[in-house]
Design brief:
Layout (H helix, E strand, L loop, with lengths): L2 H10 L19 H14 L4 E4 L4 E7 L2 E5 L3 E5 L6 H9 L10 E7 L4 E8 L5 H16 L3 H5 L6
Antiparallel strand pairs: 1-2, 2-3, 3-4, 4-6, 5-6
């Protein structure tokens, strides 16, 4: 069986992504100093990633093999255009174990499951920037430690 047939078969079996369309991104959770602190922590944890800190957000270029990450009041995975195997990537992301995190997260998908634009992890009832920072770093580690790398390394459509 060809790889294409296997992927098509797998895509047909994919469970829907758990998405809360009512999830609202909290506003003004992070102060400018918090953003700077987050940027420094991500630069320390992921030194090969280009990190750009702005007043209201941290932008991590190519932090994930298939996406950039924008961090502010939510953890946003911004998928690259032309991404292959969107359904497989979404299934892997949906099945990741985040039970060790300090906060609960609603997920909000923008785009569609075949060609996602972004996936947001929106924290619920946050009160401690250090716990939030640790969660965002752990979310990144969990994603990087999965089989998602092998799927993502197939690249984008030409």
């Amino acid at each position: 069986m060809s790889i294409l047939k296997i992927i098509q078969q797998r895509n047909a079996e994919v469970k829907p992504v758990s998405v809360d369309p009512q999830a609202i991104i909290p506003e003004n959770l992070l102060a400018e100093d918090d953003i700077k602190n987050l940027a420094e922590a991500f630069q320390h944890e992921f030194p090969l990633t280009k990190i750009k800190s702005l007043q209201t957000e941290v932008y991590c270029s190519r932090l994930l093999p298939f996406a950039d990450v924008l961090i502010n009041n939510a953890y946003e995975i911004r998928f690259r255009a032309g991404l292959r195997d969107g359904l497989v990537l979404m299934e892997i992301l949906n099945n990741l174990d985040f039970t060790s995190l300090s906060y609960n997260y609603n997920r909000q998908l923008e785009g569609n499951k075949v060609q996602p634009k972004s996936l947001l992890f929106i924290p619920e009832n946050t009160s401690n920037i250090e716990l939030l920072k640790a969660d965002y770093i752990q979310i990144t580690r969990n994603i990087l430690e999965t089989s998602i790398r092998s799927v993502a390394n197939r690249g984008v459509r030409q």
